[in-house]
Amino acid sequence: MILLEIKNYLQQRKQASLTDIALHFDADAAAVEGMLEQWIRKGKVHKTTLTTSCGSSCNQCGSAETALYVWGKRPAAQPVEWLPRNCKG
Asked: Measured between alpha carbons, how far is 19 from 4 in angstroms, rounded to an integer?
């Protein structure tokens, strides 16, 4: 897995959770997060949370599931309303 592969993956999907990216590349989430940080520093990727309640209400989801990475322009102030796979809502 290289930076270019992550770039292509996010450009195609427009957004993905850390868990989705790690699963796609069969890689450790921490390693993927380190590579994403390089794209964040360049202003190409922006990190947000999935919903306003993620991480504050049920606390059942890990940060890898609630961190959403978006390719391109910084997303609006409102977080994306998309729930992790195993979220009980």
From this structure: 18
User: pLDDT by residue (tens digit) across 26-53?
Assistant: 999 999 999 999 999 999 999 887 655 5
Report pTM. 0.70
Structural domains in the chain (count): 1
Dist CA 19 CA 30 (whole Å)? 10
**Short-list 80, 85, 28, 17, CA closest to 53:** 80
Among the listed residues 14, 58, 74, the one whose alpha carbon sits nearest the alpha carbon of residue 84 = 58
Does residue 43 form part of some domain? Answer: yes
The residue range of the domain holding 45 is 3-71
Q: Are 16 and 49 in contact (CB under 8 A)?
A: no
